[in-house]
What does this fold into?
Amino acid sequence: MSTRPLGKWLIAALGLVAVVIAVDSSGLLSTDAAVVVDDSAQLFAGLAATIACWWTARNARGSERTWRRLMACGMGGWSIGQAFWSWYQIFSDTPLPSPSWADVGYLTMPVFALPALLVMAVEPPRHAIAVLHRISLVFVLDGLIIVGSLFILTWSTALGAVVRAGAPTGAAFAVAIAYPVTDLMLVVMVVLFAVTKRVPRQHVTQLRLFGLGLVGISASDSIFAYLVSSGADEMPPATNAGFIIGPLLIAVAALATADGQHTVGAHRAGRLIERGHLLLPYALVAVTGIVVAAQSMAGRRIDGVEATVAWLVLGLVLVRQIVTLIENTTLLERISATQAELAHRAQHDPLTGLPNRALFSERLLGAMERHRVYGRPYALLLVDLDDFKLINDSLGHAAGDWLLHAVAERLRNCVRSDDTVARLGGDEFAVVIEGVNEAPAIIGDRIVSALRHPFEIDGRLLALSGSVGVVEPGRDEVDITADALLQRADGAMYAGKRRGKGIAVRYDPTLLHDMPSPMPLPD
It folds into this structure.
């Protein structure tokens, strides 16, 4: 729905409220007639919200449909409650009992409004159940802590005495408490969503209208409960405005479409608002504790309702801290896992999972240092697949990649788990062996033999061979450089290729002739 038709609906809703209040307050109507106009307008508003939510839900999807259906049920129950109320006021000769079916209908609305509000206020995935799973438990706990704190404040200052005086039975007392508690809960959740950046942009307009509607109903609801509890004979027409404008705003919210053209809060104030939201529950708990403590010191006795809610609030604070601790621990574990994964990716070949050239350089330099300091023997083997380019050209790069991965597995199986097998690039691999317990030449022959076994790919056997150059520095060669070692290994491997390929050659000084240029290690 575009902005202009939406504005027309808002003007129509405000105009209806203004007309009803003006007519009721003009004195032109008798008391009975004013009651009929007032109750009829409230019933019309409730039915309008019910029909608008249900009708627009038919063509909506996902969370757009879910919150409308929830509010269709909630406003439907509210309208039934209003119908009972209107019947007793207009047609019945007996006063409405308390509690009554009207209370059941009215209290249906917050039962459905709260999940509708939560569904609307989170980013909508494909299924409504997934929406509710994504709602932050800490956020809900914060709302309940704030509701409990505000309830204790209002109860200890004025509401408790008023409700006790106007509720002759236990059931009437429970109903009288239910209204302010549900009103506080809805208003607090609306305010929390309004001041945080949790609301998806496409739902901002809908949530503002919906939230204002809930606040309007709650405001008139609270005024009515206070007036009735304090023994007032009637409710002024202006105080009933929330019962009319609230449902009408919910109807307009249902008619509004998600446009995504709005933002929630300014970016500069976002962090300050989030921090304020985190501190708000604790600030209210502290203020509540100070007020109750001051009243106790002044001789006021804490009643059962106040004590029960206070213990519930303290329990919620404890649960919130536990949940926050668990969430923080989980977050730290995820960050640690992500950092470990990034570090692994930076030092390993993505195709084979072997250490890459950078990690190979680190391992080789470490082995050289331990050889220099402790005399620990080590060896370097350089492996190059023979005629691998022909395999890539004939079978394709996908088959070549699979073959490289299979070669990496065979190389791992030829050495110990503590030894380093790395892929230097292309079809070239390197092996660093420390604390040699068998001749490096034997390990080189083992690698050559392992590569000679045919590889099965797509149901066909593929023959492959590899040339291996082996270098084992002597005990007195403690000052040799890594580049020199690689040059020796490369020369030995190159000599094996000249001798017919598929063999392992141990380096000796006679191989220095016609050796290729050294391969520098990364810094």
In short: The first strand starts at residue 378 and ends at 385. Confidence is low (pLDDT under 50) at residues 125-134, 260-270.
